[in-house]
Amino acid sequence: MQIGRHPTNVALVGFMGTGKTSVGRHVAENLGFEFLDTDELIQSHTGRTIADIFAKDGETAFRALEKQIVRELSTRAKTVIATGGGLPTNAGNLAALKSYALVICLWASPEKIWERVRNQSHRPLLHDADPQKKIRELLAVREPFYKQADVLINTDLRSVREAAMQVALQFKLATRVRK
Ligand code: S3P
Fold first, then answer.
1. Domain presence at residue 2
2. What is the C-alpha to C-alpha distance for residues 79 and 142, in angstroms, rounded to an integer?
3. In the structure, which protein residues have their CB atom closer than 6 angstroms to any atom of ligand 1?
4. Ligand 1 atom with the shortest distance to the CA of 123
5. Quick one: pLDDT at residue 21?
6. What is the CATH number of the domain that holds 97?
7. Which atom of ligand 1 is nearest to the CA of 86?
8. How many domains does the chain divide into?
9. Using an 8 Å Cβ cutoff, are 102 and 11 in contact?
10. Which pLDDT value is given to residue 31?
11. Residues contacting 87, CB < 8 A, separation 6+
């Protein structure tokens, strides 16, 4: 694969429940990179939980914090960055990520996503009367953004380890020196 850039980082994008954080940690270990997660950075910068930011300041304020983090990460190298599920839908974030990272989207079907998130409660956007419908709706809106990633990896039938191996392989292929 040739992408015409020389990324020094890996950015994982994709819907909630596609495994960005767990896969990202494995990839970082595999490549000997540092691991960062945009949600964790926002929480440590603000000293607040994502749920509290959504509840008190609203989604727009949260998206502004995400945008700021994407800008701040531009000086990184050798880092695997897991991003929040809605981050690529905000204007400019994907282009900014692509300027310093190979952007890999972890994809999953709405059914698989529901299976993975149904017993978790920390995601404000899924606090909905019909979370399965909400997943389908959000996924439909976000699909065009996710598909702008450099690489798309379907995680429906892949374990965390298998998905991580694919991500690391894609990074090595994209950054190998051609003779
Ligand atoms: C969000 C996904 C969450 C978090 C926030 C909003 C979204 O991250 O950023 O709750 O808009 O999809 P994960 O994708 O890591 O769950």
1. no
2. 25
3. 16, 20, 39, 50, 84-86, 123-125
4. 10
5. 97
6. 3.40.50.300
7. 11
8. 1
9. yes
10. 96
11. 13, 38, 66, 70, 93
